[in-house]
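Example 4.3 (complexes with small molecules)
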Amino acid sequence: MRRPYIAGNWKMNLDRRRSLELVSALRDRLTGFDRADVAVCPPAVYLEEVVRALSGSNVKVGAQNVCDRDEGAFTGEVSAAMLRDVGATLTIVGHSERRHVYGETDALVNAKVERALACGLEVILCVGETLEERRAGQTEAVVDRQLTEGLKHVLAADMARVTIAYEPVWAIGTGETATPGQAGEVHDFLRRRLADLHGAEVAVDTRIQYGGSVKPGNASELMAVPDVDGALVGGASLDADSFLRIVEFDRS
Ligand code: PEP
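Answer. The structure with phosphoenolpyruvate bound is encoded below.
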């Protein structure tokens, strides 16, 4: 049985004070909570303080992005080793905003996945189609390419540290949510592709999060879909109460 995994992606939001207030509320309410894995991904400059504020808690701290290189003349970048050094244990890779706003290619996403895994980080690899691609019937082809290319050279043994996030681009930050049926179809497809790539055991064990306007009001129905193993939450993770209501979603 896959354990639900809920991660908050703060994107470029909140300041130092509000970040610490948010994590203090999460820490208080999630002490002793063990029904899901929970992570927060603050902006890189706040990582170290957020790690400190959550130390000893059951909330993991991760980055939103990572460099594909180890060190050197890469102005503005942050390496996987640096993330580890300040206490982050995971990183998001290939978020649609990185792909579509900053032009990250599948090859770059793959290099980032490799570097992050080599440094001992956990990875949340995001895949998802645009509205045009969905309308053109290309959803499966697009997520298949992003999954296959993103995981190129990744060993089955390292897949225990990989989570896939299916995030339809048209549902991110738009208030539009995939229906449970739409999410279920793509999650089922991704799991079958994981089986082709890494074998049935890895496919059964790998968690596939859904992301795209997840809110307290739709979390339970989305996470009731058999192949939806949690959520990557943007906007609703910026408020302690709404994020906690998603984390504590109704499992009945
Ligand atoms: C995200 O940031 O990955 C995301 C899904 O954002 P939102 O929940 O705001 O749509």
